[in-house]
Specification:
Blueprint (H helix, E strand, L loop, with lengths): L2 H7 L7 H14 L2 E6 L2 E7 L2 H9 L4 E2 L9 H11 L16 H10 L4 H4 L3 H17 L3 E3 H5 L2 H11 L6 H12 L4 H5 L7 H21 L5 H7 L1 E2 L2 E2 L2 H14 L2 H16 L1 H9 L4 H12 L5 E5 L3 E3 L2 E3 L4 E4 L1 H4 L34 H18 E6 L4 E2 L8 E3 L1 E6 L1
Parallel strand pairs: 2-10
Antiparallel strand pairs: 1-2, 3-7, 4-14, 5-6, 7-10, 8-9, 11-14, 12-13
Bound molecules: protoporphyrin IX containing FE.
Length: 413
């Protein structure tokens, strides 16, 4: 095992943006397709260049999402196999699927997430954004934006589209954080209802099974109703699969958007000229939002597994080898981005890869952009002044990361 291998798999690396940037810059320069061997993990290749991630993800017939989708220890894979009777993944959702199932299951919700469809939700989202900003205002001039503000807006948006009642907000928030933040000691310490990931998944499953049963009796305009009626090849979706779909949507759209929103605010505080520019010209918001998502790159990786031998940038990837797509690295790739370590609200043609690429490209991408744009339209209109009130801190997570603490002081307009 090398120090580089250890750094790539250590959650702590992702809690230290300077260390993460330095590690990936070194890899992009010296060994962009890097073989990682570590005693606690099956070996894999870390892919750190933008073009290489595109090359892999574009060829979904050669590079599969199953059976290895995320970085997991050998011990974890063993436990998951025991819990599921042989399958190393606990869930069976889009991110664990390949052709032909992936397209079939993706088609069920694809139309729901298209810009034309979600546009009708714009005013509802704006009301939710203002509600969260009202709660921020009630805090009287200072708060921890990362824990007290940013998570509540996306969780309410997701609950609205899923059809989960507001009274269950605390439960949904806690469960998604446990699924994604489970490497971080702070999050582990806060566990109250679930002792392990498998337990968390069970609590989620019971909850959504009841919700689906309810929507069979009382249909509404939400994804729960869509899942309750969904058919695959003329048969209702299996329980395990609809539960997995719920958990995917509930989790994928939550910490990612919350982290991008909080990380975006920190970027604006640290780049006051960009904040002034944005206030002076709100038409820059759509590009600023994409710059925030590039800047934060909350999804730290996904894996793919090769079905055949493949030459990637001169490295001999063998059939059965797996590859880690390092999105935060690709989003600082000097060959793609002009001055990649600069935060520019008006960065033109910002074709970042934080939403992934190819057939698994983030399904909620348009929604995330609309959600964040609306939030920032309201925040910049209503908050006249904002600054740091303490040191920010990042989540120790190899999976979905971002700020876990952002103390700010602010003045409402
Ligand atoms: C800034 C916010 C977000 C980021 C950075 C993000 C990022 C990603 C990434 C990197 C992937 C994997 C893509 C790949 O394998 O190439 C993904 C997949 C996915 N995302 Fe997002 N996401 C965000 C918000 C959302 C939202 C709001 C939703 C839904 C409400 C959502 C739902 C999904 C789903 C369902 C998939 C699986 C797609 C598939 O495998 O076919 N995401 N996302």
């Amino acid at each position: 095992m090398t120090a580089i291998a250890d750094a790539i798999v250590s959650a702590g690396t992702y809690a230290d943006p300077a260390a993460m940037d330095a590690l990936f810059a070194q890899l992009r320069r010296d060994d962009p397709v890097h073989r990682v061997e570590h005693p606690e993990y099956r070996p894999f290749w870390a892919v750190t260049k933008f073009a290489d991630i595109q090359e892999v993800e574009r060829q979904a017939d050669i590079f599969l999402n199953a059976p290895r989708t995320f970085l997991r220890t050998l011990a974890y894979e063993e436990r998951a196999r025991a819990a599921t009777g042989g399958n190393p993944a606990l869930l069976r959702s889009l991110v664990f699927m390949d052709a032909p199932d992936h397209a079939r299951y993706r088609k069920l919700t694809q139309a729901w997430f298209m810009p034309g469809r979600i546009r009708v939700l714009e005013e509802e989202f704006r009301a939710l954004a203002n509600e969260v900003i009202d709660e921020m205002a009630d805090r009287g001039g200072s708060c921890d934006f990362a824990t007290e503000v940013a998570p509540y807006y996306p969780v309410r948006v997701i609950m609205r589209i899923l059809g989960v009642p507001r009274s269950d907000e605390a439960l949904i928030l806690q469960l998604t954080q446990e699924i994604f933040g489970s490497d971080d000691p702070d999050v582990q310490a806060s566990r109250t209802t679930a002792a392990s990931l498998a337990d968390t998944v069970k609590v989620f499953s019971d909850y959504f099974r009841d919700l689906t049963a309810d929507r069979r009796r009382h249909p509404a305009d939400d994804l729960a109703t869509l899942f309750a009626r969904a058919e695959i090849d003329g048969r209702p979706m299996a329980d395990h699969e609809s539960i997995s779909y719920y958990i995917l949507v509930a989790t994928a759209g939550h910490d990612t958007t919350s982290s991008s929103t909080a990380g975006g605010l920190l970027a604006l505080i640290q780049h006051p000229d960009e904040l002034r520019r944005l206030r002076a010209d709100p038409s820059l918001l759509p590009t600023a939002i994409d710059e925030m998502v590039r800047w934060v790159s909350p999804v730290r990786h996904f894996f793919r597994t090769a079905t055949r031998d493949y030459d990637l940038r001169g490295r001999s990837v063998k059939a059965g080898d797996s590859l880690m797509m390092c999105y935060p690295s690709a989003n600082r790739d000097e060959e793609i981005f002009d001055d990649p370590f600069a935060f520019r609200a008006g960065r033109p043609m910002n074709g970042h890869i934080a939403f992934g690429y190819g057939p698994h490209l983030c399904l909620g991408m348009h929604m995330a952009r609309m959600e964040m744009r609306i939030f920032y339209e309201e925040l910049l209109r209503r908050v006249a002044d904002v600054g740091l009130a303490g040191d920010p801190a990042w989540l120790a997570s190899t999976n979905v990361g971002g700020l876990k603490r952002l103390p700010i002081h602010f003045r409402m307009a």
